[in-house]
Write a structure and sequence with these properties.
With about 650 residues, the chain is an alpha+beta fold. The protein folds into two domains: about 325 residues, 4-Layer Sandwich (Anthranilate synthase); about 220 residues, Class I glutamine amidotransferase (GATase) domain (Rossmann fold, 3-Layer(aba) Sandwich). The strands form four sheets. Strands 1, 2, 6, 7, 8, 9, 10, 16, 19 and 20 form a ten-stranded antiparallel sheet that branches. Strand 23, helix 14 and strand 24 form a beta-alpha-beta unit. Helix 6 packs across helix 13 and helix 14 packs antiparallel against helix 17. The longest helix has 21 residues. The protein starts with a helix and ends with a helix. Keywords: Glutamine amidotransferase, Lyase. It catalyses: chorismate + L-glutamine = anthranilate + pyruvate + L-glutamate + H(+). Pfam families: Chorismate_bind, GATase. Its EC number is 4.1.3.27.
């Protein structure tokens, strides 16, 4: 059964039409209907993608719990990874679909959040104090779920909601109904998570939510939103986090395009597009990009730990993705995957769930984040035709403001302070330093995939780079340079296994005189070994751009740090030689240090917030390496240190 009218007739008669999906992608002038059997698999690698004729082959419903494939923490609710294997496919004109879909209201009862406002506010305060305030990350997304009961048969309600979405919503990336037999999903997701087409990988970080007034978007209020520092920094932070993901799945990393204003019927968002060339299997691309920082936080691995600590229930499909996999005419794999937000899940018994989340950053307030979850839930319900605002959702679309000259200027201004390394196209070899060509670097990852972006910059400068997790044993011999990278946590801890291992690694590097560069957490640990006291900042430097004096040169760079070393002078005598310090003139915070064969920076030169980051690396690295091109070879204590690292 592939014709929409037959599908609707079966639903009206109370029959199960079998698994299907009805999807409008972006601003297409029609919908796509997919039908076929559903198969449950355990891993993303098991998603079927058979060879054959070009076109879509599988639609996968990826639950949030799939994050365990990457070894990350979650409240495991057991939701299945369901795969609709496309056996029947057709395109349907939008006008035909609107004429066929039921024009009726959707009736619900018993709507309430599973977590009260007071409980959610308390969770926000705990995250701000215990997580961001203690250096566990820059931002975290904590969700809550509005539940209700649908009075109509689930598929009848879903089709009616889909019709309202098609008429009233705009700016959605996918508008859809998916029925697997065990659940129905209906929604209008604004956000592409990742797509692959013609070898081009694209991601779409979105952050910042501007809610329209009762009469539509207000220009003055929108301009105020676009100038709001909290909203700007939130977008920069998710941009950095998705650039980390692009660094893993695109050979040259991602190029930043935008920002843009995404206007929807009830809300507007700010967004960037990221693009890069890649050749990996699309299922690997899905795995390496689980899941969007806009629904988790950063750094990703620790964000998952924080979510598991502070959320009492599993997320089911909230924050996961729908993923359409197939082949193009040339036989290459394709992928199109929106994030499962602005989505209602309806059980066969009529239980409705709409999950929403707020992004918590250092500027957040508990009351403001509670209000944001209400606004998002109201917008979803209104758009779906499920709440008291449903009548407005079916009215005339709000006027567009994205083409307003002041709005365009406000958006363009957001790029002025960002690193051109990620915004501009670069000719191959444009950044190479001859002195680094033929040299190699080992980057030790402290659980922050900023190391992926750092790798692209180091390679751009001419180094051959290998990345190794902090807990993975391996030799140090054969590398000209060791880079001890960033990561979350308290650098002063004497019990954290990661801090113990990285501290031992650095001690061995210093003792052996190996060329060493440290970044953020690595810099803090190095400073501690050199005898500098470490302090927790009263106001965390998470996603903060500053101009600092770096050994006599002003540099604009981005910080993601809660801790800092401090010093009372610009120099320090150590067992490893004289160390020069670049420090803040007010509080003595050490922004950078350099000594014989080693250097450290508290900021992230690889961040999009560091317009001078590449220049900083280009200045520091040649001084660390001996003038001859041979690799550093040594035996002794560093071997055991490498094993501990």
């Amino acid at each position: 059964m592939t014709h929409l009218s037959d599908l609707l007739a079966a639903v009206s008669a109370g029959a199960d039409p079998g698994p299907f999906a009805l999807i409008r992608r972006a601003d297409a002038d029609g919908l796509e209907l997919f039908a076929g059997p559903v198969r449950t698999v355990d891993r993303l690698a098991d998603i079927p993608l058979p060879e054959g004729a070009p076109g879509p082959r599988t639609l996968a419903l990826v639950p949030y719990r799939q994050i365990t494939e990457r070894g990350f923490a979650c409240v495991d609710d057991g939701m299945p990874l369901e795969c609709l294997q496309v056996e029947r496919y057709e395109r349907i004109e939008l006008t035909e679909a609107l004429a066929a879909l039921p024009d009726r209201p959707v009736r619900t009862s018993g709507a309430a959040f599973d977590v009260t406002d007071e409980e959610y506010a308390a969770a926000v305060e705990r995250v701000l104090t215990e997580e961001i305030g203690r250096g566990e990350g820059a931002n975290f997304v904590i969700h809550r779920t509005l539940t209700a009961t649908v009075q109509d048969p689930p598929l009848v309600a879903a089709f009616a909601a889909l019709r309202r979405l098609l008429l009233a919503e705009r700016g959605a990336y996918w508008t859809f109904v998916v029925h697997t037999g065990s659940r129905v999903l209906v929604g209008a997701s604004p956000e592409r998570h990742v797509s692959v087409d013609d070898g081009l990988v694209m991601m779409n970080p979105i952050s910042g939510t501007f809610r329209h007034g009762d009469t539509g978007p207000e220009r003055a209020a929108l301009l105020g939103f676009l100038a709001d520092r909290k909203e700007i920094e939130e977008l920069y932070m998710v941009l950095d986090e998705e650039l980390k993901m692009m660094a893993a799945v695109a050979e040259e990393g991602g190029q930043v395009v935008g920002p843009y204003l995404k206007e929807m019927s009830h809300l507007a968002h700010t967004e960037y597009l990221l693009a890069g060339r890649g050749t990996r299997d699309v299922r690997e691309v899905l795995r390496e990009t689980m899941f969007a920082p806009t629904v988790t936080g950063s750094p990703m691995e620790n964000a998952c730990r924080v979510i598991a600590r502070h959320e009492r229930t599993g997320r089911r499909y909230y924050g996961g993705v729908l993923a359409l996999l197939g082949h193009d005419d040339a036989g290459r794999q394709t992928l199109d995957a929106p994030i499962l937000i602005r989505t209602a899940e309806i059980s066969p018994a009529g239980a409705l769930r709409v999950s929403v989340g707020a992004t918590l950053v250092r500027h957040s307030s508990a009351s403001g984040e509670v209000a944001e979850t209400h606004a998002k839930a109201a917008g979803v319900l209104a758009a779906l035709g499920l709440g008291p605002q449903a009548a407005r959702s079916a009215g005339e679309p709000a006027p567009r403001l994205a083409d307003d000259p002041e709005v365009r200027a406000a958006l363009a201004a957001r790029n002025a302070p960002l690193a051109r390394f990620w915004l501009d196209q670069r000719a191959p070899g444009a950044c190479v330093l001859p002195v680094l060509v033929g040299r190699s670097a080992l980057v030790v990852d402290g659980e922050d995939t900023f190391t992926g972006m750092l790798t692209h910059q180091l390679r751009g400068l001419g180094l051959a780079v290998t990345v190794r997790p902090w807990h993975a044993p391996g030799p140090l011999d054969g590398y000209d340079l060791v880079v001890v990278g960033p990561g979350p946590g308290d650098p002063g801890s004497m019990t954290d296994p990661k801090m113990l291992a990285l501290r031992a690694l650095l001690a061995g590097l210093l003792a052996a005189g190996r060329p060493t560069l440290t970044v953020c957490l690595g810099h803090q640990l190095l400073a501690g070994l050199l005898g500098l006291p470490l302090h927790q900042r009263i106001a965390p430097y998470q996603g903060l751009q500053r101009e600092v004096d770096l050994f006599g040169t002003p540099r604009r760079v981005g910080f993601y740090a809660t801790f800092t070393a401090r010093a009372e002078a610009d120099g320090l005598d150590t067992p490893y030689g004289r160390v020069e310090l670049a420090r803040d003139g007010v509080d003595g915070a050490v922004h950078a240090l350099r000594g014989p064969g080693f250097a450290g920076v508290q900021f992230h030169p690889e961040s999009v917030l560091s317009p001078d980051g590449l220049e900083v690396l280009a200045e520091l690295l040649p001084a660390l390496l001996p003038p001859t091109a041979g690799r550093f070879e040594s035996t002794g204590a560093t071997g055991s240190t490498a094993e501990r690292a």
